[in-house]
Write a structure and sequence with these properties.
Two copies of one chain form a homodimer. Chain A is built from ten helices and six strands, in the order E-H-E-H-E-H-E-H-E-H-E-H-H-H-H-H. Chain A is of the alpha/beta class. Chain B binds a DNA duplex through helix 7 and helix 9.
DNA sequence: ATACCACTGGGTGTTTCCTCCTATTTTTCC
DNA sequence: GGAAAAATAGGAGGAAACACCCAGTGGTAT
C-alpha cells in the first residue's frame, strides 16, 4: 500500500516537477493535483490522500484558511506546506492551522520523499534551516518572530503607511487625531520589533501583512 | 533536428518540472541542466544549446550578469528568462542584457513550448500580461518603470537604509558627511519616483534592488 | 464588577527626514 | 583632453518621525 499524495499549487511547473520527482517511487503515489482551492476540495470528494502538499500563496483562498478547512473536515489528511516563504513566522502560523510539515520549494527529490514519508509516519517535518531558526528563537527566548496579534485598526493604518501616506494624512483620512495615529504606529513598531518605518515595511512584507 | 534547450535554475522542482513538460516533445530536446552560474558555464563548454532558459535569482551570479556574459561569449544562444518576477522593469533590464524572451514560472507546457519555438525562430517572446503592461507604458508615455541607473554608491546607501539605518548612522559608517548621504537619498527618491523611504523600500524590493 | 484591551487623545522634546538651493572635486568615458 | 556623470559637502528651514509620558472611554470576557 503506497502513500497517497495530493498536490495543490497554481504553478504547472511545480506540479509537473513534483510529479516527476515522485514518479516510479516505490512507496509514494500521486492521486490527484489541483491548481486552486476549489479544485482541491472537489478532488478531495473523489478520493482522500494520506498527505497533501499545499502551497501558501494561491489565487482565491489563502493557504492558511484552506489548511484550517481541510484540517477540520478531513482530520485524517496530513498537510505539508510547500512554499517559497522562508520566514519562521509562516511556519508557526501554518502549524497553528493544523499542518504537519513545512517544506521549501528549493527541496530536491530526496528531501521531498523523506518529508512525505516522515509526516505519513506521524512525525512532523520542517525544513532544516527553518527548524534551526525556530529552535534558536526558543533557546534565545526571542519574541521577535512570535508576532503578537495586529488589531484591525493597526492593520488599517499599516496599509496606509505602506501606501506612502504620512501620519497627518492618515489622521485626516480616518478622522482621528495625530496622536492616535502615532500611538498606533508605535504599537506596530513594538509588536513587530522594529526601529522605524523602514523596518516596519520590510517586516510586514516578509510576514505577508502587506502587498 | 530538434531545438536544443538548456536550463539554469537553482530549484530542482523547476528543473524537473520543465524536463517533464518538454519530455517527448517532437521538436524540442533538453541537452543539459544547471543549478547555478558556474555549472552553466561548464555545461556550455561541452555543448551549445539553441535556447537557454535562465532564472534571474540564483545563488552567486545574478541573472542579468550571467545573461550579459552568455550574450557576449555565445551570441548564437537565444536566452529566455524564466522567473517569478512580474515587474516590467525586469523585462526591460533583461532585454538590455541581450535576452530574447521573458516567461513567467506560472506558464504551462503549451506556453513554454510556444515561447521556446518562437524565440528559436527569431521572434522575441514576452509573457502576455507583461507585454500588455509594457505597451501600456509606452502608449501612456510613462517613465515610472523606466528606472534610471542606480549608481554603486547609491546602491550601497540603499542597502543601509533598508537595514534600518538612519542617515546620520550611514554618514558615520561611510566616513562622509550627512549632506552627502541626504543627497544620495534624494537622488534615489527621484530616480525611483517615490515620495519617501516607505516608497523607496517598496519600490526597491519590487525591483529586486534589495533583499 | 472588575480586569483586560482596543481605541482614543494629549503633551513635550529630540531627532530625523526631506526639500531647495549652490558648489567643488573626482571619476569615467568618448 | 574635454565633457559628462558621480561623489562630495554645505546651509537653511519646515515637516514628520520617534520616544517618552499620561489618561479616559467603551466593549467584552471571566
Amino acid at each position: 500500500m503506497k502513500i497517497k499524495v495530493s498536490i495543490a499549487d497554481d504553478h504547472p511547473i511545480v506540479i509537473q516537477g513534483i510529479e516527476k520527482m515522485l514518479d516510479n517511487h516505490p512507496l509514494i503515489e500521486l492521486i490527484h493535483t489541483s491548481k486552486n482551492g476549489e479544485s482541491l476540495l472537489r478532488n478531495l470528494k473523489t478520493a482522500l490522500p494520506d498527505v497533501l502538499l499545499l502551497d501558501i500563496q494561491m489565487p482565491g483562498q489563502q493557504g492558511d484558511e484552506l489548511a484550517a478547512y481541510v484540517t477540520q473536515h478531513y482530520p485524517e489528511i496530513r498537510i505539508m506546506v510547500l512554499t517559497n516563504m522562508d520566514h519562521p513566522f509562516h511556519v508557526r502560523n501554518m502549524f497553528k492551522h493544523g499542518v504537519k510539515g513545512y517544506l521549501l520549494k528549493s527541496a530536491d527529490k530526496y528531501e521531498l520523499a523523506e518529508a512525505i514519508d516522515s509526516i505519513y509516519k506521524g512525525s512532523n517535518y520542517i525544513d532544516r534551516l527553518l527548524r534551526d531558526q525556530l529552535l534558536y528563537e526558543v533557546l534565545d527566548n526571542k519574541k521577535a518572530h512570535n508576532i503578537p496579534t495586529i488589531t484591525k485598526r493597526e492593520k488599517e493604518i499599516l496599509d496606509m503607511i505602506a501606501s506612502e501616506m504620512t501620519s497627518p494624512q492618515i489622521a485626516k483620512k480616518l478622522f482621528i487625531s495625530l496622536s492616535t495615529v502615532e500611538n498606533h504606529r508605535s504599537n506596530l513598531f513594538l509588536k513587530l520589533g522594529v526601529k522605524n518605518v523602514v523596518g516596519l515595511i520590510s517586516k510586514a512584507a516578509q510576514l505577508g501583512l502587506i502587498k
